[in-house]
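>> received
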Amino acid sequence: MLMWLLVFVLASIVFSALLPHLERFGFGRLPLDLRFRLFGRVWLFPLGSSLLLSVIAWVVARLLR
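>> returned
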């Protein structure tokens, strides 16, 4: 379980760094993506986008098998 938490945190960091480029494709604005402003900063928890990217990665991995 700790490994999955670490993977999710690392994926969230990478996703946040790539978000300006991915917003052109609709990522970051999906239904489960939480975005709010607190202390003058925008906080993003991309749950829906992470789930979608995980499914896409799983499908690609299954096809390459």
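>> The radius of gyration is 13 Å.
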